[in-house]
Amino acid sequence: MFSEYREVTRLAVKDAIGFPAITLLASMTGFGSLVHESGLPLTMAMAATAGIWGLPGQLTLVEMHVAGASAFFVILAVALANARFLPMVVSFMPLMRSRATRTGWMFLLVQMLSINSWAAGLRRFPQIAPELRQRYYIVFASICMVAGLIGTMVGFVGVGLMPRSIALGLIFMNPLFFAVLLAGVHSRTASVALLVGAPMGMLFHLIAPDLDLLLTGAFGGTLAFWISRRRPESEAAS
Amino acid sequence: MIDSPTTGLILLTLGAIGVTYLWRGMGVLFASRVSSDGAVFQWITCVSYAMLGGLIARMIFLPIGPLAQTPLIFRTMGFIAGLAVFFLLGRRILPAVFMGVATFIMLISYF
User: Which of A111, A170, A229 sits opposite B24 (nearest CB)?
Assistant: First the structure.
């Protein structure tokens, strides 16, 4: 059990610098170069990284805007792409709360939650004294955020200086990174939803490019939900 | 509706940030009250994963931006290379992404 302030800080730094920071640096470099290549400003890239802080939503924002979708549909699609934050926050915050925690403070801290800090918290919190968990989260998530912002800037500024093939490769990294990240998801429900959504996303894009993600979410998500409900016993077996 | 492209872009970005924060803020409000095992959350999770699956597939196979100028076969091969490395080398993300991107860059550079 880690119960000393400095010990927890060191642990958070050690956990964050390494894989999470590198992936964020790399994936946000891809995002930064996409924003630049789409002819949008650096301030938008930085604001999207810090403000949305979730690559799928950020990609949805840029991609749908560039595709010419109206603001209403872009924002609706971003909202849906980020809906996972609700269950993530609900499952995370109670673990971090101690008697000293003020709820108002939580509304601020929640902005820094991402898939990296969520996973790290769920893994480490049992080993950390409850009143120091918030400390761990703040240090870990801050390092992630800084890495993400540096990556965004490097990608945006760097893409113009790079050979064309490298620049295209960085943009290609966005969907590939997510494909690989999600291929590692162990939940059967999530895998079903991904596999149902992939062809639907392309189909709906050809039929109704404005609404493709919304239709994919509504139909694909509901179909996946229905499939996973119908066969709960095989989930227990797998 | 919107007079200048810059204002439109600022409003769009702020709107996107706002709706994202809505989920986070609601999460804090609900955290003490709602179970994340419930059917509603399971459905929301399904919807978000289906959208992610659709978004990824579209970005690789039907891209809109600069990737649209690259051949479909190179994108497909980069994608397959990345996934193959991921599953063959014990589900490590970094080498998988590296191999996929490297394959793609090599293909578009030399062919």
Answer: A111
Residues B3 and B25 both lie in one domain: yes
In the three-class reduction of DSSP (H, G, I as helix; E, B as strand; rest coil), residue A201 is classed as: helix
Mean pLDDT by 10 residues, chain A (238 residues): 90 88 87 93 97 91 90 90 82 79 86 87 88 94 97 93 88 87 81 94 89 88 92 51
Q: Containing domain of residue B91, as a range?
A: 70-111
Give the domain ranges of chain A: 5-184, 186-238
A189/B83 touch (CB, cutoff 8 Å), yes or no? no
Nearest by CB to residue B100, choosing from A67, A110, A176, is: A176
Are A86 and B23 in contact by the 8 Å Cβ rule? The answer is yes
Taking the C-alpha atoms of residue B7 and residue A209, their distance in angstroms, rounded to an integer, is 24
The whole-chain average pLDDT of chain A stands at: 88
B81 and B102 part of one domain: yes
Reported as a single tens digit per residue, the pLDDT across B33-88 is: 656 567 877 887 788 788 889 988 998 999 877 888 999 999 999 999 999 999 99
Domain count, chain B: 3
Nearest to A54 among B20, B70, B86 (CB): B20
Does residue B9 surpass a pLDDT of 50? yes
Say whether residue A166 is in contact with chain B using an 8 A CB cutoff: yes
B47 to chain A: closest CA residue: A221
Nearest CA in chain B to A27: B97
Which residue in chain A is spatially nearest to B111 when comparing CA positions? A165
Same domain, residue pair B24 and B53: no
Q: Is A153 exposed, middle or buried (0-12, 13-18, 19+ CB in 10 A)?
A: middle
> CA A151 to CA A158: how far, in whole Å?
10
Instruction: Give the pLDDT of residue A84.
Output: 77
